[in-house]
């Protein structure tokens, strides 16, 4: 009987012990979903072996995550899109070889990188800041592979055109900065915004869970079922920064930034790869044709049943395509060296 009571007491104690973290998790989910989202990113960075570091450049601070050390393959620098952050790349980094030297930086003003003024948020301004980061961490000691998506694709392309000796190759994922032959759903939103003198809400800057859900539907062809609490958490994380996002949005739509990539395409000398979701509703896939016509030797990979959020929708496929591209260039380079030696 005493043993039975001891067992009951043990089970009660164990149940109470387990109940504490479970209740804490439920409370966090219901009351502080934004905190849960931050923990999620922290967990995945840790799981994938990414470390967060800061680079200080004369009063300006960059926040970035990295994994690995420079080696045989080129280092890879990843530039995220508008209103995103370095953790955008986590789903894709999962499928990249662990020995690669990878850096994911918060773009100017975003997340942990210093927020200054509108001059830094134009495409040219962002290019200058990213170059400052590259020099600070000495990434340009040898040419590196540059990856950019959406706004980050616009920046990456202009960077490659501005600093050709630093880039060995480049991947643009659904890049902004092009005059697209075909319009998208987002283009229609932009026209409505311009007609309203920007008094209407911007689809890429949600302030309610409903607007967040609309933005995710706009950016993704794959439909994810996201609980209302998580949507609320995503809004809570972004809401304090919405004024900043609006400032950046207006800057990258300015006449000097809106078509910056297209205006610099002819200056890109590094081998270039374009990856695009065929169902992109933000920047139309016809932009791939514009890039291919300007740079006939580029590689174009179009993904079926995929929208604008390629990294989130097709992370494994995207990682595979990037690695195939980088390896193919290494093979070509090795063949050329052998031929020269004969």
UniProtKB/TrEMBL annotation:
Reaction(s) this enzyme catalyzes, per UniProt: 1-dodecanoylglycerol + H2O = dodecanoate + glycerol + H(+); Hydrolyzes glycerol monoesters of long-chain fatty acids
Topology in the lipid bilayer: Single-pass type II membrane protein
GO BP annotation list: acylglycerol catabolic process
EC number: 3.1.1.23
Ranges of residues in domain AB hydrolase-1: 74-315
Key words of the record: Endosome, Hydrolase, Lipid metabolism, Lysosome, Membrane, Mitochondrion, Signal-anchor, Transmembrane, Transmembrane helix
Top EC class for this record: hydrolase
Subcellular location: Late endosome membrane; Lysosome membrane; Mitochondrion membrane
Tree of life domain: Eukaryota
One of the record's GO cellular component terms: mitochondrial membrane
Segments traversing the membrane: 12-37
InterPro entries the UniProt entry points to: AB_hydrolase_1, AB_hydrolase_fold, AB_hydrolase_sf
GO molecular function: monoacylglycerol lipase activity
Primary role: Lipase that preferentially hydrolysis medium-chain saturated monoacylglycerols including 2-arachidonoylglycerol. Through 2-arachidonoylglycerol degradation may regulate endocannabinoid signaling pathways. Also has a lysophosphatidyl lipase activity with a preference for lysophosphatidylglycerol among other lysophospholipids. Also able to degrade bis(monoacylglycero)phosphate (BMP) and constitutes the major enzyme for BMP catabolism.
Similarity comment: family membership: Belongs to the AB hydrolase superfamily.
Name the record gives this protein: acylglycerol lipase
